[in-house]
Amino acid sequence: MTQAPIDSARSLFVRRWGEMAASWGVSRTMAEIHALLFLAPHPLCTDDVMEQLEVSRGSASTNLRQLVNWGLVSRNHRRNDRKEYFEADRDVWQMFETILRERRRREVQPMVETIERCLEMVEPARKNGVAEANEEAEVLRKRLTDLQEFCEIMNNLFNLVTRSGRDQVEPIAKRLTSLVE
Amino acid sequence: MTQAPIDSARSLFVRRWGEMAASWGVSRTMAEIHALLFLAPHPLCTDDVMEQLEVSRGSASTNLRQLVNWGLVSRNHRRNDRKEYFEADRDVWQMFETILRERRRREVQPMVETIERCLEMVEPARKNGVAEANEEAEVLRKRLTDLQEFCEIMNNLFNLVTRSGRDQVEPIAKRLTSLVE
DNA sequence: CTATATTTTCAGTACATTCTGAAAGGATCG
DNA sequence: CGATCCTTTCAGAATGTACTGAAAATATAG
Questions:
Q1: Most buried one in A96, A172, B11, B116, CB count within 10 A?
Q2: Which positions 26-45 of A are in contact with B (Cβ < 8 Å)?
């Protein structure tokens, strides 16, 4: 027997989570599965996902694997059952950290490396050639180093926060937060 | 006359910035234009953008307007010139704040409202019906309130940081940062 | 006010991403 | 080891997003 209001709430949440994720560059279905698992009271198997989200087996399989790769979902087995059951990490802070770390690794790191490379390309051009060219090189260098410095600060802040651990950070954040209200 | 190494650096940066943005749900061209303007030593007009990125007039116009809407780029005029010239905000901290604020408004806020709605739907179901159903409702409520609390903390932190202003935050961030090294 | 320069819009098209469904591949049981 | 159950893979299809180019709209100069 299904509980109508509970199911409606779940389905609304799942849909919206999918929409939000889509605008952050995460495929809708992957996010919907993540939301479904996040809300589920117990682990779900592939068929549960297929049924509840009306997606194909291929899509369910692929997206579940990606979620496992991201570290947001874990696989579980049961005795006397060949199926795999999937369970989402429910610790919101941990989830956030996982997502940030993965995105940094996949998307920010290459950008940071590129900035470094660009600076190496610009450096030799700085005092070589006409004055106008030098000035242009100087401007470019400034823009790149500003960005680089910002990235370093953000990177270190992230490291600091994650190394301190959630138990240290959460109360501080809450305390700071009370300053705003 | 074009300076080969400078141009190469610029073009490399622009391309990578576009790639990164694409995986964050921002269209490649819009991000490339943003990068181009960010690095440019002076404002550019639509034709400059079309030429340097090899995109159509329609695309340049649409994407420039979007950048202006985001508050990342401003339009300028010149005397005796009908063209519009576009200039990016070069303050990296300001840029970051603008992006976060816009994304919160466009993408996070609707999610927060949805969580609220979901909680309203679940509430009446809590002590109404069989024990099993109550338990499910309780679990769902827990998940939603955990997420809600997290969103509130993040929201307040963001407000705190942006109200304090960049001049207050940057040195603190740098100081904290030095703890990591 | 007309001529001209510039921007915006949008229908059609190109491109990229994601899904489907079935076949192949693995794993586990008796 | 064969039968069964489950997962993965992938070619083709569906879908969605973003671009193009030209026509319409707008703005400025004379």
A1: B11
A2: 26, 38-39, 41
Give the 3-state secondary structure of residue A161: helix
Contact B23 A20 (CB under 8 A): no
Contact pairs from chain A to chain B, CB under 8 Å: 172
Give the mean pLDDT of chain A: 92
The tens digit of pLDDT for each residue in B80-108 reads 888 999 999 999 999 999 999 999 999 99
Q: Please indicate if any CB of chain A lies within 8 Å of the CB of B12.
A: yes
Tell me the C-alpha distance between B4 and A78, whole Å: 62
Q: Is the pTM of this model over 0.85?
A: yes
User: CA of A73 and C1' of C23: distance in angstroms?
Assistant: 28
**8 Å CB contact between A180 and B159:** yes
Strands B81-88 and B73-78: antiparallel
CB–CB contact B180 A159 (8 Å): yes
Q: How far apart are the CA of A42 and the nearest CA of chain B, in angstroms?
A: 10
Question: Which long-range CB contacts under 8 A does B141-150 form with residues at least 24 apart?
Answer: B143/A38, B143/A39, B143/A90, B144/A9, B144/A13, B144/A39, B144/B115, B144/B118, B144/B119, B145/B119, B146/A90, B146/A92, B147/A92, B147/B115, B148/B112, B148/B115, B148/B116, B148/B119, B149/A92, B150/A92, B150/A93, B150/A96
